[in-house]
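During the no-cost extension, the postdoctoral fellow (Dr. R.K.) reprocessed legacy sequence entries with the updated structure-token encoder. One reprocessed record is reproduced below for audit purposes.
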Amino acid sequence: MTLALSWSTGKDAAWTLHLLRKQRIDVAALVCTVTREFDRVTIHGVRRTVLRQQAARVGLPLIEIELPWPCSNEMYQFAVGEALKGLEARMGITGVAFGDLFLADVRKYREQMLAPLGLDAVFPLWGIRTDLLIRGMLRDGVVAHMASLDPARVPARFAGWAIDRRLLDELPPGVDPCGENGEFHTVVSDGPMFETPIDLVAGEIVEREGVVYCDFTVGAAVE
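Re-encoded structure tokens follow.
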């Protein structure tokens, strides 16, 4: 089995790559959507420069799918479909792995989108308790920060914070510790899936359309 991995720049996608490699499943490429007008990863708001550094550090080619802003679901499906079409012929890829954890409607949507392309949807993290999952990531050296958050559910002061035990202890009741319900999104700079860490520098914190973002840039090279 050879897979592409849906890459969001965050911890769940990164951990999915780690688990697949431990299982000796071939991951041939990362696939990520980027909003053209902002030059940033869709939803997470991470700069394209950071995304490309991540791909280099995990040693995989990156398939960037550019989306317009605003982007309808129909436009999204068309762009993703065009990018994934023919992956088996070009790279031997027979499926796409996702870091989804428990949202059944999201899983069904992905399966239905890939089926006409002849690709399987694979969910290596599915059903793992999220409190145990995040603690396992931290124990094994994943370094991630909050790149964006929903201030209606997570205090805006957490933007840019490291995902660590202190933050997990301070999350409001009802917030999923992995942010699976969209409470927050992360950007990873180190972990067992990386050859070398990325020096991420937290910059300006802004709120746009009800979402708080921390603008991370790549600093000096880490030896």
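Residues 2-218 form a domain with the Rossmann fold fold (CATH 3.40.50.620). The chain has a mean pLDDT of 96. The remaining legacy entries will be reprocessed before the final report is submitted.
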